[in-house]
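Illustration: PLP-dependent aminotransferase family protein.
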Amino acid sequence: MDRNREVIGPDGLIDLLGDWSSGDGPLYRRLTEAFGRAVRSGDLRAGDRLPSERRLADALSLSRATVVAAFDALRGSGLVETRRGSGTRVSAAAAGRRVPVDGRVRGGRATAVVQRLITRPPDLISLGRAAEGGGPDLGRALLDLVREDLPGLLRDAGYHPAGLPALREAVAAHHTRHGLPTVPEQVVVTTGATQAVALSAQLYLGRGSTALVESPGWPGCLDVFRAAGARLVGVPVDSDGVRIDRLATALAVQRPALLYLMPTYHNPTGVLMSAGRRRRVAELAAEHGVPVLEDSAHEAALAPGEVPPPIAAHSARGTVLTVGSLTKAVWGGLRIGWIRAPRDVVARLARLKALGDLGSPLLDQALAARLLPALPALAPERARLRREQLATMTRLLGDRLPQWSWQEPRGGSALWIRLPPGTDARVYAQVALRHGAEVIPGDAMDPTGAHDDHIRLPCAFPAQTSAELVDRLSAAWSARSRSGAANG
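Result:
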């Protein structure tokens, strides 16, 4: 055993254990199983020294007795050993038990969110998603598609790596209406915005490259860049979007391969980047020769008003890729997104997409082509519903959790909540999970530590679900503030 291996602190161990506290059975058994998974996956290796029982109990908001019981079970299985003066370490017998890759991203923050999308524990209210169900307009469009377009679609071979021509035309018209002149050859259709981000990362990033990202940001997208081998450098956001002074410095010092931004209703803060900042971002990126990936998949306004033209509309010299999606505007189950970019970039992206799936589902694309021109007519009703959901959630939080604070978002479907000073949102998230609520803590969206006291709280729930959610969050908040014995 390598006695020179460094001790793993509680914070690092929490990341390795992942989503351990949901499920059935006593807490000590769930914790024991999580340690076992970390050892078998190779995240914990022979010789790794674990935190003391007391430190780990404090970090996980558990009683010391629960952690002691878990360590006893681990010693009994031979996975760890404890020696006086040396502490508890992963045993040499645990070496060589590595299992095949399980899809997790090393250093990633979205693993637990993705895992719960797969396993879907019963009765869990997830705050990892901020998407609404499909409305009657979607059903009508689907029926019209079947009646009018299906025969022709069935005669099509179905292989369109760059996208169904009718949808590429609709996307081009959509961007042209919003101040970004576009032709169909500048559009590649993707299976959702996540694939759009992944293809862009594949095109520009590689092991050892640097990506500039907003801080905070959405962990699912950040993990896409980590999976590509990139090093992430965060740039702060204020009420007008990414801070230009910090961005200018980062571009000059870091020499990044890609700049990734969410200018329209940034996730998780709901900030709308001003037109002036969009223009300055385009100028700076062109000056430094850095391609910009602007993710506009969250174009979900809370109030009527014009959104400034995309960053790409201000870029005469640089390269800007603009991502769009129908997930937030129409339905999460309609996995259709796109990238608008220069023609040569679109050609490369289409080749990469062809290698992956030969093209997105044809019927979904045809449905999207029908819906996209109707978005302006649907927007007012969608905005009204979001305002109602936001008002319901803020009223419930004000009544039950008055210690929490937030800024009113400009758009999107979530609140960026600040917990009282000194609160570790990761610890609270573990307690909330034991009360049936999945909370995304701030450190998942900003690994620098600047938002460790924040959580993201979607509002896109029916009123009854919102009330039940806040009940669970309130119960978890009370449990967190009680003694560890009450939780163990």
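Reading the tokens back as a structure: The chain has three domains: 10-94, 111-131+378-487, 136-376.
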